[in-house]
């Protein structure tokens, strides 16, 4: 098989890359490891879904496909299956994480691109500035907002980001959670804004508006009001007639000639048969853990530790987001059960907090399924079973509100994903071996942010609040990033400012792997914006 470009992964970054390359006239093959599932096939089982990941579910990765190896901070190691603690998974199906995500659509704040120069570099961390800044990315954020579809309040947003255009859609209506939190924010003197969402608040791009169902985050959207790669950019790519999407196609190795020019990708189909697709350009967008694994597995004589890895950078600085939160019991019922649930945020604690590095965006929580309420929202002094427990849930389910947010991680070079020397997946490929933790400063920041969440709930009228500290751990699940960081110096980074792997003219990374730091907000809009920018650059240079 031959193509102009191969895109590995059909998620947030890969979908954008496929559309831009195909629309520029290139023949594109998209290899996607997961299946192409319908809404009915994904289902909406309260026990088996991507929000409550305790049991195998259908949105991948498949239980039988392959485990990972997790190395504990104390040194012990064990094999972990998908959906077991320590696996650090994201959705594995056509559309990647965007098929099931909560769709929060944040631009990174200008200071997120300049963490080292804003705060200094704590000892033992690999905190660094990005080689690009907010202004470089602003036009591509705008493209992501309009071409994929975001609803929000551009006036409130303009207080935080210089922006040229409004959002294409107004925010979703506010409910009782937002009303209570507005009360609290005004008592504290905090600015608030509706959470921008990759959701149709009104009919947009030929698809319906959100029906406010309860099954949003962790589930597929029945009416396709949630805007992901599968119903926007992948469709655009396929509409050109030049793109081919191959589901259940696992990229195993990137092929390279002796001079370092990438020549194509070897991949495995469901039956285990090997194929090669030759190409002029290869784009890795398999998500931060799998992209690093793929580069590491593509060893050559020139690069015996994998492509772009002669300086031992591929797979380091693994980041996600440590979550800081507090729960509050409100006097009035604040939970109305209408999706998507998350509604009001503040960015007042994202930066320049007293005595800590960085911070987080804080917002209310998505709709809470009863089982998730039982598992995560009960006061610590309440028995986990019995009549008292049942009575509390019956009486307080609608009164308890969670406020939390993604704490900007201080990266550590010792948070790593490598190839395991022994364990292989069902196709015989070495699996990812995850080790290390975030830097201890992340935990201090998380404790501070949890205190701010508590203050917001109390100011909003909460009768009592509770929380739990974020542990010193590896955070590399749904927001995984950082494993092929972007930079000008090949000794400390893997890709250049356009996402091109150092030393390889025609090999690009266009997923969250390239993030130098992961922002004080959720990452997906940044992944999309970077992919628009990088893919346009590939076309211009072709
Ligand atoms: C339940 C849930 C809620 C979330 N909520 C939010 C939110 O509200 N806001 C936000 O910003 N982010 C959210 N996220 C995270 C967001 O979805 C991810 O940050 C984003 O999708 C990552 O984009 P990516 O391109 O790096 O990788 P992905 O979107 O994960 O795409 C990678 C793709 O590559 C495929 N792949 C992997 N290995 C191979 C291989 N060897 N060969 C071929 N294909 C391969 C995978 O199957 C996958 O489809 C959420 C995620 C989940 C699961
Ligand atoms: S809440 Fe709206 S966007 Fe979310 S799944 Fe339901 S209909 Fe779709």
Strand content: 15-25%
The level of helicity is 10-25%
State Rg.
22 Å
Total count of strands: 17
Distance between the termini: 21 Å
SS summary, helix count: 12
Structural class computed from helices and strand pairing: alpha/beta
Biggest pleated-sheet summary: 7 strands, mixed
Give the SSE string: EHEHEEHHHHEHEEEEHEEEHHEEEHEEH
Nearest-integer average pLDDT: 97
How would you sum up the global shape?
Answer: globular
Q: What is bound: which ligands?
A: flavin-adenine dinucleotide, iron/sulfur cluster
Low-confidence stretches: none
Describe this structure in words.
It is a single chain. The mean pLDDT is 97. Helix 1 (12-23) runs parallel beside helix 7 (233-239). The chain is of the alpha/beta class and 542 residues long. It is built from twelve helices and 17 strands. Strands 1, 2, 6, 7, 8, 9 and 17 form a seven-stranded mixed beta sheet that branches. A six-stranded antiparallel beta sheet has the order 5-11-12-13-10-16. Strands 4-3-15-14 form a four-stranded mixed beta sheet. The protein is globular, with a radius of gyration of 22 Å. The structure holds flavin-adenine dinucleotide and iron/sulfur cluster (SF4). Iron/sulfur cluster is lined by residues 199, 210-213, 215-216, 221, 223, 225-226, 339-340.
């Amino acid at each position: 098989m031959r193509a102009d470009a191969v895109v590995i992964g059909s998620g947030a970054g890969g979908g954008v890359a496929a559309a831009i390359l195909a629309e520029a006239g290139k023949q594109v093959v998209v290899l996607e490891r997961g299946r192409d599932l319908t809404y009915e096939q994904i289902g909406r089982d309260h026990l088996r879904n991507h929000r409550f990941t305790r049991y195998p579910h259908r949105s991948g990765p498949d239980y039988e496909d392959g485990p990972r190896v997790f190395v504990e901070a104390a040194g012990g190691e064990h094999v972990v299956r998908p959906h077991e603690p320590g696996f650090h998974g994201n959705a594995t199906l056509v559309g990647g994480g965007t098929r099931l995500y909560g769709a929060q659509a944040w631009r990174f704040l200008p200071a997120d691109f300049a963490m080292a120069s804003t705060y200094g570099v704590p000892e033992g961390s690999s905190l660094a500035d990005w080689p690009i800044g907010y202004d470089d990315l602003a036009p591509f954020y705008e493209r992501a907002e309009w071409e994929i579809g975001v609803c929000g309040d551009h006036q409130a947003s303009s207080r935080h980001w210089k922006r040229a255009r409004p959002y294409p859609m107004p925010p979703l209506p506010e409910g009782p959670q937002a009303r209570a939190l507005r009360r609290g924010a005004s008592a504290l003197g905090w600015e608030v804004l509706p959470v921008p969402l990759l959701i149709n608040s009104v009919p947009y791009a030929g698809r319906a508006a959100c029906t406010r169902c309860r099954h949003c985050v962790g589930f597929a959207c029945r009416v396709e009001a949630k805007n992901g790669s599968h119903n926007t950019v992948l469709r655009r790519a396929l509409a050109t007639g030049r793109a081919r999407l191959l589901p259940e196609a696992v990229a195993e190795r990137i092929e390279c000639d002796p001079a370092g020019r990438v020549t194509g990708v070897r991949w495995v189909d469901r039956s285990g048969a090997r194929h090669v697709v030759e190409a002029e350009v290869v784009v890795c967008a398999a998500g931060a853990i799998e992209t690093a694994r793929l580069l590491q597995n593509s060893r050559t004589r020139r690069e015996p530790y994998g492509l772009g890895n002669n300086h031992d950078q591929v797979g380091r600085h693994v980041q996600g987001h440590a979550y800081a939160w507090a729960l509050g019991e409100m006097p009035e019922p604040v939970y109305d059960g209408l999706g998507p649930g998350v509604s009001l945020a503040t960015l007042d604690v994202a930066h320049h907090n007293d005595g800590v590095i960085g911070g987080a965006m804080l917002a209310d929580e998505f709709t809470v399924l009863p089982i998730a309420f039982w598992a995560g929202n009960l006061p610590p002094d309440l028995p986990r079973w019995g009549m008292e427990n049942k009575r509390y849930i019956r009486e307080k389910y609608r009164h308890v509100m969670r406020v939390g947010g993604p704490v900007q991680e201080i990266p550590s070079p010792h948070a790593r994903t490598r190839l395991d020397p022994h364990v292989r997946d069902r196709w015989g490929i070495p699996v990812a071996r995850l080790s290390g933790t975030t830097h201890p400063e992340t935990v201090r920041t998380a404790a501070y942010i949890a205190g701010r969440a508590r203050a917001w709930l109390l100011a909003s009228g909460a009768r009592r609040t509770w929380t739990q500290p974020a542990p010193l751990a590896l955070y590399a699940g749904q927001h995984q990033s950082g494993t092929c960081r972007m930079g000008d110096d090949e000794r400390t980074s893997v890709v250049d400012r356009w996402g091109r792997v150092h030393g390889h003219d025609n090999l690009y990374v266009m997923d969250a792997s390239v993030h130098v730091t992961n922002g004080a907000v959720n990452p997906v809009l940044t992944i999309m914006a970077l992919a628009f920018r990088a893919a346009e650059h590939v076309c211009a240079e072709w």
